[in-house]
Amino acid sequence: MSVREELEKLGRLQELDLKIDRARMLVSSAPAIYREIESEITKEKSGLNLVAIHKADLEKQKRGLETEIVMDQDRIKNIESRLNTVTNNKEFHAVTKEAEKAKKLISDREKTIVELTEKISAQDKIAGEFEARIASLNEKLEVRKNEVGSQVGEADKEIASYAGDRNSIISEITPPLMSRYNRIRVRYNDALVACKGGHCTSCNVALPPQMYIQVQKCLEFLACPSCQRLLFFKV
Question: What is the 3-class SS of the chain, one letter each residue?
């Protein structure tokens, strides 16, 4: 088999390998596509958790105030019961003032409870917005997984479908050339590149004139002196 014929076979092999590379890249990049949406979901859940913590703190404050109001109400009852035992105006004014102070505390606490209730409602609204975004992102993730899953499935089928053709071509290429091709493919996807106008079309380095003539004659396997890719002549 001539050098030209082997290079042609190597070219067909490379076409298959590049298609396989693209398919494998899709398969390997699938988790990264999910990760972007999953990261957004994690961020939204973190925000929702902070809202829940803040709401719990507000509810704790509200319960504390409600407990204090009950205690104040009991204290007022005790104060008012003492009015029956008051014997002079000074004592009466002192007890009345104490009762008014307790009632003022209750009034202030009730106003604070109203404010806390409004803040709790606001947190519920914010939590609802977070939950809606999380639900939307989960739906988006599911759709994306189905889309990518389908693409990955097709890519896997494509890779499998090329296996037979690839093995058939490899069987017709001499082991030394195949070994050389595989070594180059470790560094570059395109192990075999065109030489045009006296230049390597991959790294664009100008070939020595004599070497360019030899590439055109196609009597031996030649590599670019710069990138070490195998060369073939292209008009």
Answer: CCHHHHHHHHHHHHHHHHHHHHHHHHHHHHHHHHHHHHHHHHHHHHHHHHHHHHHHHHHHHHHHHHHHHHHHHHHHHHHHHHHHHCCCHHHHHHHHHHHHHHHHHHHHHHHHHHHHHHHHHHHHHHHHHHHHHHHHHHHHHHHHHHHHHHHHHHHHHHHHHHHHHHHHHHCCCCHHHHHHHHHHHHHCCCCEEEEECCEECCCCCECCHHHHHHHHHCCCCCECCCCCCEEEECC
